[in-house]
Amino acid sequence: MLNDLLSETRGKMDKALEVLVEDLKGLRTGRASPSLVERVMVEYYGAMTPLNQVATISAPEPRLLTIRPWDAKMIGPIEKAILKSELGLTPSNDGKLIRLTIPRLSEERRTELSKAVWRRIEEAKVAIRNCRRDAIEDLKSFQDEKLVSEDEFYRGRDEVQTLTDDYVKQADEIGERKEAEIREV
């Protein structure tokens, strides 16, 4: 029972880190990457849809992204969505293809992005701590129902805390790597 609870908690914490990594892919680092815009939400026939589901995104050059919509009518909505996003990029099109030139990051923009990274890291840590809280509440209910002894409860609580510490450390490491990527000139 304790092992099941720990593996379930580990799975939830893994998911929190996966969401963090996916979220950080959308932050601009000065180098063109399709993951930068693929999650931008575009209005597609009345429904909000991720950009990668309505267009082909490629990076033919280190500082250039090209977006080729599958439906030519989507150029306008895609441009609007990119302008509304917090990426700070200005699209240009030739009627068939949207080009996004990735400018070099200024020191001010690097600082802003760095702060955004750490905000997202903190959100991930909160999610991890919420998993810990839920696991400890489950342990308490197991103890109240006499499914685990007091010793098992304390051992389980310590293991959940150790797990939490490990995942918080991983979130910090992910943040440090992303910040180093942003600071790279």
Assign the structural class, choosing from mainly alpha, mainly beta, alpha/beta, alpha+beta, or little secondary structure. alpha+beta
Overall 3D form: elongated
CATH class of the largest domain: Mainly Alpha
Rg, Å, rounded: 22 Å
The number of helices is: 4
Assigned CATH superfamily of the largest domain: Ribosome-recycling factor
How confident overall, as mean pLDDT? Answer: 87
* Secondary structure tally: strands: 6
Q: How much beta, percentage-wise?
A: 15-25%
Strand/helix succession: HEEEEHEEHH
CATH topology of the largest domain: Topoisomerase I, Chain A, domain 4
Uncertain spans, ≥5 residues at pLDDT below 50? none
> What is the spatial order of strands in the main beta sheet?
3-4-6-5
Commentary on this structure:
The chain has 185 residues and is of the alpha+beta class. The protein has helices spanning 2-25, 75-84, 107-144, 150-183; strands spanning 41-44, 47-50, 55-61, 64-69, 91-93, 98-101. The radius of gyration is 22 Å and the shape is elongated. The protein starts with a helix and ends with a helix. The protein has a 4-stranded antiparallel beta sheet with strand order 3-4-6-5, with helices on one face. Strands 1-2 form a two-stranded antiparallel ribbon. The longest helix has 38 residues, at 107-144. It has 4 helices and 6 strands. It has 2 domains: 2-25 and 106-183, Topoisomerase I, Chain A, domain 4 (Orthogonal Bundle), CATH 1.10.132.20; 34-101, Gyrase A, domain 2, CATH 3.30.1360.40. Helix 1 packs antiparallel against helix 3, helix 1 (2-25) runs parallel beside helix 4 (150-183) and helix 3 (107-144) runs antiparallel to helix 4 (150-183).
